[in-house]
Write a structure and sequence with these properties.
Blueprint lengths: L8 H4 L11 H13 L6 E3 L9 E6 L2 E24 L2 E18 L5 E7 H14 L5
Antiparallel strand pairs: 1-2, 2-3, 3-4, 4-5
The structure holds zinc ion (ZN).
Length: 137
């Protein structure tokens, strides 16, 4: 189900709580909403659709990925500065991102996986995981 984009800064500033199997429906809504906004958005966190759970969805090159309870367990390489925007608020901002990250997360079967990402995909994941901590660009 496509949901409305949340632009309430107070809500978006709250840290998200752990997602469980009961929250898979929100992961699907998040994906539907991301796909609906594909022309202007490459990733979303669940609080952007008003759900305070640790779920993110993003495009990894050409395929969509949903992660439950993602966390960055390792950073590689240098930090670089990049100009990012966000569907939940106006304007763009300069932020620092790592070139490469290792992420631990659960998939839709709640199986724990570890994957390494670099470049633009790593940048998107860092942005979305920041949302889960209530951190906005
Ligand atoms: Zn954002």
């Amino acid at each position: 189900m496509i949901r409305k984009i949340c632009r309430d800064n107070n809500f978006l500033s709250l840290p998200s709580t752990n997602a469980t199997r009961d929250d898979i429906v929100y992961g699907r809504d998040l994906l539907d909403t991301l796909m609906d906004n594909a022309s202007s958005c490459v990733g979303m966190a669940a609080n952007m659709i008003g759900v305070n759970k640790a779920i993110i969805a993003f495009i990894d090159e050409n395929k969509y990925v949903v992660m439950y309870n993602p966390r960055i367990i390792r950073y590689y390489g240098k930090k670089y500065s990049v100009y990012e925007g966000c569907l939940s608020h106006e304007g763009k901002k300069n932020v620092e991102r790592y070139e490469k990250i290792q992420v631990q997360f659960q998939n839709e079967d709640f199986k724990v996986l570890v994957k390494t990402y670099s470049g633009f995909t790593a940048e998107i994941i860092q942005h979305e995981i920041d949302h889960l901590f209530g951190k906005l660009i």
